[in-house]
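Blinded run. Sample ID left blank on purpose so nobody reads anything into the name before looking at the predicted structure. Input follows.
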Amino acid sequence: MSAKIYLSEVDMTKEPLRYYDDFVDIKDRLIEYGIDVVEEEIDIDEFKSWLKEFTRINTQYQAYGEVHIEKCLEHYLSYKVLDFKTTDIFMDIAASGSQYADDLYYGKKVKQTYVLDLSYPEGIHGNKIGANAGDTKLPDEFIDKMGMHCAYECFEGKADIEYLSEAQRILKPKGRFVILPLYLDKTYFNCTSDKCDQKNVSFDEDAAKVWRDDVYAVPFARHYSAKIFYERIFKNLPKGIKGKIIFYKNLPELMKEFDDQRVYCYFAFVGEKI
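Blinded prediction complete.
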């Protein structure tokens, strides 16, 4: 039996500055596969101002310690990408206990918000939806914008593919979704924790299996290589969905600004219904 490979040995989010050239290489590989890649710079001063405006988000994620800024950054970047209008209906996918949707609604950034999570009671209860993201039970062309923060990697089996089909169905024309971080690595792998019952986890047959050696008992997470992301996701986008990847090229500059934090949102996946 081969020795276990641990996440700390392969996961580039552990020391993202050290692996910057690898992320650039992944970006270049995505372009070689014909994926539309847009390089953007994060406006650090604007991000700091956003933290002051969205104080509840900032406060909520302070409890996350060394990834406090990462979690705030994910929401800031999705806020920028989705470019909300006051007439929008927004849904936060895999929202769990996030206050983001409430902040958007009560801050009058959007018209209406919904939050979806498997942990909620099954069905649609007010603006809370207990459902799989690939089968929301919502009407066709109901949602303007959708965001997903640090969740897509946990979609086991074909759930990552099924979500895209559901997005195509429930988004209005010109509607948009964003997924971030999009976990891309040089190696295609699934990671899991030995604290979880492996019989209940649906692993990808062609992915390497990596073990988490941290305090988080996460049963499943998928990291795509550029090749697998293209073949599994991008090449099979539903008809009517145009996709692109955003590469945040100045993330090292942000890391230096918050040098006690672990920041790793190099990639975002954006889809628009055309």
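Unblinding after everyone has recorded impressions. The mean pLDDT is 95.
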